[in-house]
Amino acid sequence: MKKPLILILLLSSIFFTICNAETKNDDLTKKNIKEQLEKEAKYKKEQAFYHGEKYDLKEAEVNEESLKSIPNNRRDNDDFDMNSVYD
Question: How far apart are CA 63 and CA 66, in angstroms?
Fold first, then answer.
């Protein structure tokens, strides 16, 4: 009478352990898949930024014609000498 009970108890504990291990593996797999999908979404967002697909950068360009109207205040004989600073 004791042998069948011990055998049933042993087999049920083995079955429970196997099912629990499979559940843990499934949970880890789902967790890893979720992490990889999040990394892929982050990478996609960063690449869109780096390529400038969603941004209009024409407003930040400098107008070449407006630069011509700025006076040049630098003198040609201006000699930038730093030797006197260290004396």
Answer: 6
Tokens representing 71?
A: 């006076």
Q: What is the pLDDT of residue 76?
A: 62
CA distance 55 to 74: 37
Tokens of residue 19, six digits: 């099912």
CB-based burial label for 55 (10 Å; 0-12, 13-18, 19+): exposed
pTM over 0.90: no
Whole-angstrom distance, CA of residue 30 vs CA of residue 24: 10
Query: Which position has the token pair 């000498």?
Result: 81
Structure tokens that stand for 53 in this block: 């697909």
Residue 80 has pLDDT above 80, yes or no: no
Burial class of 35 by CB neighbour count within 10 A (0 to 12, 13 to 18, 19+): exposed
Two tokens, residue 82: 């730093």
Here the tokens at position 77 are 């004989």
